[in-house]
Write a structure and sequence with these properties.
The complex is a heterodimer of chains A (399) and B (268). Chain A is an alpha/beta fold and 399 residues long. Chain A is 42% helix and 18% strand. In chain B, helix 3 crosses helix 13 (256-267). Chain B starts with a helix and ends with a helix. Chain B has one domain: TIM Barrel (Alpha-Beta Barrel), CATH 3.20.20. Chain B contains 13 helices and 9 strands. Chain B is an alpha/beta fold and 268 residues long. Classes of the chains: A alpha/beta (399), B alpha/beta (268).
Chain lengths: 399, 268
């Protein structure tokens, strides 16, 4: 596969790590040497031919890329526009997360790191991290909120089967944001031999940019596949769900500088934006600093981080990546808040219409379609970021 | 140095005392909301040189379990940046027990301060008599680029951290851009997780000692008894006690006698 990870857009990160007003590296001095080592080296490591060869080979032979771009005919008829699904659900481990963990473990090896630490919410990123650690023979420690460990037991078992140590995060609200705090603390305590594989386009610079580059394979493939199928490289819309926003960053990446392509982000409204049980960050949040970057986050008037809620554990995060904060702030992206019930309905609909059971996260992106006032000649690509196997117990309660 | 900084209590402390400086940390609004000034006064009466008041935050990534839990409890109690300034409003003024004269540092994370407003925060610090801040997730580079002029205008010191992994060039940069003192984190760690002072820590202390920095240095993280305070004081101008004092408050309450006993144990 002939390809590159170079950004081509005016929405690329600045050398200080900012997207517009958002980003940067708000980190304690204890993390400075690690983050600085990564910042100084990630671009040259990624550009190195040996990295490129290994990365693309693994994406092809291990992850199963390119993933198909599927014309969803019955869904298209139902919605009244041409809908393509980018099938990230067919990636090894069941979601796009592995694109990033493959890239980061290759970076970690080239930095001479011997251990990997990661955070996980629903467990998808934890599984993707444990998977590449098994593949490369590196020690793997995954922090997971103790409440999430109960909610997502099958993924805990998967990680353990893959040889990872899963550590319950017992601080704070015992969910994803606390698992992230604990993983950062672990990195502070083990600065020399450990690499922290962040699972989304969040965290201090260079993480948002690095993760976006690894996920950008999604939009790179979309362009080629769409051109082959329709004769045009660019759709009218690209739609993706946003928790931290890694699948969205990957799906948007190669369209960022083309205003003719509207970028649509579906956030989790939970029980409703104003219900007090929501994760609709751009609707409810304000600018602030979370997990090392300036972004938009849900917080109290006093600047304490608010615990979000969504039926989908992967969208249950109080912030968004700084790139997405910039897309929202600049008007480049359209943000929709999708409730639990709307997402469930979209998940059931896709299952019946196309024979594809989507992850609840991806179901939020599908649910945005009916809110977008699409025209009959619109061409839309939806990033189907993951498969729904992990969500069966939730779906089954609503059958 | 600006006019304001020459009058700063921390700056003037170091002009007349250079040895065995004891800085004690506690969390605002902990164990009970209204304990802040009580604990502050008891620490002053017990003879500590600097008091560091923690501004609680929901996600304190540089802190270990003890301080995290005290942050959580204080937030439940209803503490906020605004509430803390209300509590400190009169502490420098004449009152029956005498005014608070000990230098005060506020330690906390940047987000609550951004929401409060940077300028308003500095203004309130000056108004109530706070001398400096420690903001671990505001790195020096970003501080200098965006906020330093405001802190300087109000005479508020920004205390920076160094760790065993900090490069010599960066230590020089930090020393050059710091006023007050440098906070030497004793080892690669979060607060409350360090047990004793190892030989590799001593080697790091000696390496920094030999750099002849312009700023005084206080060692923090792992300072929890007389022995560790004594050792740290041999290599720096003094030390900072945090988690050990929070545990003491949890176990023994906030009486002036108990706080005096704790400080005496450290100093011996």
């Amino acid at each position: 596969m002939q390809t590159t990870l170079e950004p081509t857009t005016s929405f690329e990160v600045s050398d200080k790590g900012f997207y517009g007003h958002f980003g940067g590296a708000f980190i304690p001095e204890m993390l400075y040497p690690n983050v600085e080592e990564l910042r100084q080296n990630y671009l040259s490591i990624i550009a190195d031919p040996s990295f490129q060869t290994e990365f693309w080979q693994l994406l092809e032979d291990y992850v199963g890329r390119p993933t198909p771009l599927f014309l969803a005919k019955r869904l298209s008829d139902k919605i009244g526009a041409t809908i393509y699904l980018k099938r990230e659900d067919l990636c090894h481990t069941g979601a796009h997360k592995v694109n990033n963990t493959i890239g980061q473990i290759l970076v970690a090896q080239r930095l001479g790191k011997k251990r990997i630490v990661a955070e996980t919410g629903a467990g998808q990123h934890g599984v993707a991290t444990a998977t590449v650690c098994a593949l490369m023979g590196l020690e793997c420690i995954v922090y997971m909120g103790s409440i999430d460990m109960e909610r997502q037991k099958p993924n805990v078992d998967r990680m353990r089967m893959l040889g990872a140590t899963v550590v319950p995060a017992t601080s704070g609200s015992q969910t994803l944001k606390d698992a992230t705090n604990e993983a950062m603390r672990h990195w502070i305590n083990n600065p020399v031999d450990t690499h922290y594989i962040i699972g989304s386009v969040v965290g201090p610079h260079p993480y948002p940019d690095m993760v976006a580059r690894f996920q950008s394979v999604i939009s790179q493939e979309i362009r080629k596949q769409l051109a082959a199928k329709t004769g045009r490289e660019t759709p009218d819309y690209v739609v993706a769900c946003v928790g931290g926003g890694s699948n969205a960053a990957g799906a948007f990446f190669h369209f960022l500088s083309e205003p003719s392509v509207r970028l649509v982000a579906a956030e989790a409204a939970g029980q409703g934006v104003t219900s007090g049980h929501s994760a609709a960050t751009t609707a409810l949040g304000k600018p602030g600093v979370l997990h090392g970057s300036r972004t938009i986050l849900m917080q109290t008037e006093d600047g304490q981080v608010v615990e979000p809620y969504s039926i989908s554990a992967g969208l249950d995060y109080p912030g968004i990546g700084p790139l997405h904060a910039h897309l929202f702030d600049s008007g480049r992206g359209d943000f929709y808040a999708i409730t639990d019930n709307e997402a469930l309905a979209a998940g059931f609909e896709l299952s019946k219409l196309e024979g594809i059971i989507p992850a609840l996260e991806s179901a939020h992106a599908l649910a945005a379609l009916s809110k977008m006032n699409l025209k009959a000649d619109d061409v839309v690509v939806v990033c189907l970021s993951g498969r729904g196997d992990k969500d069966l117990s939730t779906y089954s309660k609503h059958l | 140095m600006t006019q304001e900084l020459t009058q700063n209590r921390i700056t003037s402390l170091f002009t007349h005392k250079r040895e065995r400086i004891l800085n004690v940390y506690f969390t605002a609004g902990f164990p009970a909301l209204d304990d802040t000034v009580t604990v502050l006064r008891s620490l002053q009466e017990a003879g500590v040189d600097i008091v560091e008041i923690g501004m609680p935050y929901s996600d304190p990534v540089a802190d270990g379990e003890t301080i995290q839990q005290s942050n959580g409890k204080a937030l439940e109690n209803g503490i906020s940046v605004k509430k803390l300034f209300d509590q400190l409003a009169d502490c420098r003024k004449d009152q029956p027990d005498g005014p608070i004269s000990v230098p005060i540092l506020l330690m906390g994370y940047i987000n609550p301060i951004l929401q409060f407003g940077i300028e308003k925060f500095c203004q309130k610090c000056q108004e109530v008599g706070v001398d400096g801040v420690i903001l671990p997730d505001l790195p020096l580079d970003l501080y200098l680029a965006e906020y330093a002029h405001v802190f300087r205008e109000y005479g508020i010191l920004n205390v920076n951290l160094i760790t065993p992994q900090t490069s010599e060039a960066r230590i020089r940069f930090i020393d050059n851009e710091s006023d007050g003192f440098i906070y030497m984190v004793s080892s690669a760690s979060i607060t409350g997780s360090v047990k004793g002072i190892s030989d590799s820590m001593k080697a790091y202390f000696e390496r920094i000692q030999a750099m002849n920095l312009k700023n005084p240095r206080l060692i923090g993280f792992g300072i929890n008894n007389h022995e560790t305070f004594d050792t740290a004081s041999q290599y720096a101008n003094g030390a900072i006690v945090g988690s050990a004092f929070i545990r003491h408050l949890q176990e023994n309450g906030t009486s002036a006698d108990s706080i005096r006993a704790f400080v005496q144990t450290i100093r011996a």
